[in-house]
Design goal:
alpha+beta, five-stranded antiparallel beta sheet, 10 helices
């Protein structure tokens, strides 16, 4: 038997009798961290397995760790670069899975959550983000203030809450659908791994987060939205309206969190990594500036670099 480390402290690879397995160490539930975890991962996977959704099989569940199937294949992140074309068959599988999971009755998972409908789900995401921001703001006030990011951001986000469609049923969501959490198996199936953010929530959030993280080309994103019209069993116009609302929330949240992460990178001496992170932050920050209600001004890479460097000197 051999145990291999991975890039995540919550995951290791077990090799036994020539076969690979995934050991998962659960994170704490119910605490305010950047991405709130409400529901035990094994409860979500068990329900999806019963409904024949392709997920890593749960082979053992203990108090301290679980053992899951190791899916042989290639990470989406290794096969497709950001802002490059993705095979339509891959996108079709993603859309079909999201829409098929929407039809599953996941109401038993509500007992783990602090929300009861789509509106309170949205409001909870805003509240959790605000709690995290308050912690970051204590140490990074100078950067946030210079960028114009204040508690007013949350006023604008909370104002969107009444627009969320509460008639749409809540459903099981993955909560973290990005390229590093998706594998194209050796048989050609798209399998999403890492369901620790899975819960019963709003499908509009799951879609918005996916679009935010995937960095589709404009053409591929339009294809995704068009195909969603073909597969979604519900009021598609209300769904797409809410996807747009959640995309604004996810964008604002990423800016708030990445002030912290960009500052961390600026404590290091790796110039290449600092430039990469700064460019990543700049693109998202300037995109948020296009929403007039936030009253933010776009910044060049040089301006942002100065802001973070000045803060670094004060540490």
């Amino acid at each position: 038997m051999e145990i291999l480390d991975t890039s995540s402290k919550q995951c290791k690879i077990l090799i036994q009798d020539g076969k690979r397995y995934v050991i998962r160490y659960p994170r704490k539930l119910g605490i305010s961290v950047e991405y709130y975890r409400s529901t035990p991962e094994d409860r979500v996977i068990e329900l999806l397995q019963k409904c024949h959704v392709k997920v890593p099989k749960l082979l053992y569940q203990g108090e301290k760790y679980s053992v899951q199937e190791y899916v042989e294949g290639q990470l989406l992140a290794d096969k497709y670069m950001d802002h490059r074309d993705i095979d339509k068959s891959v996108m079709d599988q993603v859309i079909q899975q999201i829409c098929s999971i929407y039809l599953i009755n996941g109401s038993d998972l509500l007992k783990y959550t602090n929300w009861k409908d789509n509106k309170t789900f949205y409001e909870f995401q805003c509240h959790n983000t605000q709690t995290v921001f308050e912690g970051y703001y204590k140490n990074l006030k100078a950067i946030y203030d210079t960028l114009g990011i204040s508690y007013d951001v949350f006023t604008h986000l909370y104002d969107k809450s009444p627009k969320i469609d509460n008639d749409r049923k809540m459903s099981i969501i993955h909560g973290d659908r990005h390229k590093k959490n998706a594998i194209i198996s050796n048989s050609g199936e798209v399998v999403f791994i890492d369901w620790e953010l899975g819960c019963i929530g709003d499908i509009a959030y799951d879609i918005a987060f996916h679009l935010h993280q995937m960095a589709y080309t404009k053409e591929d994103e339009q294809y995704f939205l068009n195909q969603l019209r073909n597969y979604f069993n519900g009021d598609i116009e209300k769904l797409l309206n809410d996807v747009a609302l959640y995309r604004l929330f996810v964008l604002a949240r990423s800016i708030i969190y990445h002030v912290y992460w960009t500052d961390l990178v600026y404590q290091e001496n790796n110039k290449e990594e600092r430039k990469k992170q700064l460019g990543h932050f700049m693109r998202r920050y300037n995109r948020l500036c296009s929403y007039k209600e936030f009253n933010l001004e776009t910044k060049s890479e040089e301006e942002l670099e100065k802001i973070f460097q000045e803060n670094r000197r004060r540490q």
